[in-house]
Amino acid sequence: MNAAPDPDEVAEADRRFRMWMRLNLDHAAAHFGLTVTGEPVFGWRDRSISASADSPNGARWLRVVSEQMDWAHGHGWTGNDDANAVAGVPKPRVLGVHEWDEGDWRRQRAEMMTFTNGTPCSPTDTAPPGLDPPGAWWDGLGQALQVLSHTATDRVSTDQGKVDRRVRAAFGEGVDVRIQRWETVHGDLHWANLFDPLAIVDWELWGRGPAGTDVATLYCYSLTNPGLARKVRDHFPVLDTPDGHRAQLYASARLLHRSELGDHPQLTQPLNDHAQRLLRCISP
Questions:
Q1: Which residues lie below 8 Å from residue 188, measured CB to CB, with a gap of 6+?
Q2: CB 62 within 8 A of CB 24
Q3: What whole-number distance in Å separates Cα of residue 248 and Cα of residue 240?
């Protein structure tokens, strides 16, 4: 039996990795001729580091993502840059890309983007207490997602096979959720990826997915804030349709998988309760 990792050793490894990621950010800034001005922000499990920066042409946002060689390719690797093709949605635009290898174990990708004005709706994926965007913000989000849903792309965010794997892993092999309608989706619409004034960031996972995926995901991330969850439902009637029920069950399964990995444990029970209600709705 393998011994549990020593917490102090893990903390030291994490500290060293973050220091190394800061050096990568400095390398990218030098490549693009930028001066980092903001305190760096680390992404999911420190996989990425980002910060505001100055350029001769104005403010920019600089992001560096680090990945093992086997994963540093495909749609997930190029999503932010590919999203330049999405028009009519408030979002950052990638202005330059720089990639390099760190030995034979990591691939680095730096993206210089336009700067997004405003403030993230939450410092984490889930909804903070008291979050209450104004009506115009909700209207803008609905319009943006409608435009996105009709955007042509050959990218795939989620296919039927992925839905099957996630749903059956979470709720049993006997659960069958056949997606009836597909559209273009952001793929990871949570509160840290939404800004006020409205902007949508982090486009790594966008592509074709089940209709209603984005609002279903946002609703599931709002379950610890019942008032906000009701507003999501009020503004997006698709949640109360068969398409919306299927999308919510998939979103619940996806977030439950993340909770098993240690993310947002406060959502585990609300997600399970919500999923049981959905299973009753979609059962033949």
A1: 202, 204, 205, 217
A2: no
A3: 10
Does 123 sit behind a cis peptide bond, omega within 30 degrees of 0 on the bond before it? Answer: no
Strand-pair partners of 200: 194
d(CA 171, CA 185): 24
Q: What share of the chain is helix, strand, coil (3-state, %, to 5)?
A: 45, 20, 35
Distance of CA 222 to the CA centre of its chain: 14
Nearest 5°: CA angle at 82, between 255 and 183? Answer: 55
* Strand segments (E) across the chain: 35-36, 41-42, 48-55, 58-68, 94-102, 106-114, 119-120, 182-185, 194-196, 199-200, 207-210
HSE toward the beta carbon, residue 121, CA cutoff 13 A: 30
Q: List pLDDT tens digits, range 33-53.
A: 999 999 999 998 889 999 999
Kindly list the distances between the CA atom of residue 74 and the CA atoms of 30, 69, 253, 264, in Å, as whole numbers in the listed order: 26, 12, 24, 27
pTM beyond 0.90: yes
Residue 35 pairs with which residues in a beta bridge? Answer: 54
Amino acid at 100: W
Residue position matching structure tokens 């749609």 = 75
pLDDT reported for residue 11: 85
- Quick: pLDDT tens for 54-69: 999 999 999 999 999 9
CA distance 72 to 231: 38
Which token pair is 277? 């209600």
Q: What domains does the chain contain, in order, with CATH numbers?
A: 7-114 (3.30.200.20), 119-282 (3.90.1200)
Cα dihedral 110, 111, 112, 116 sign:
negative
Q: What is the pLDDT of residues 210-260, one digit of tens each?
A: 999 999 999 999 999 999 999 999 999 999 999 999 999 999 999 999 999
Share above pLDDT 70 across residues of the chain, in percent, rounded to a whole number: 98
Nearest CA to 77 out of 108, 34, 46, 100 is that of 108
